[in-house]
Amino acid sequence: MKVNSVVANNKKKAFDVEAEAGEFSFPFARLEIIPTPSDRVREVYVDRELANEGFTYVLESGAEGSVLMDQVLDYNHYPPYVREALLYKLTLEVQRAVENCGLSKRELIRQLQTSPAQFYRLLDQTNTNKSLGQLFVLLYLTGHTVEIVVSSSEKGSTRRSPKPKYLSRVSV
Question: What are the backbone dihedrals phi and psi of residue 70, each rounded to the nearest 5 degrees, phi first?
Answer without folding.
Answer: -60, -40
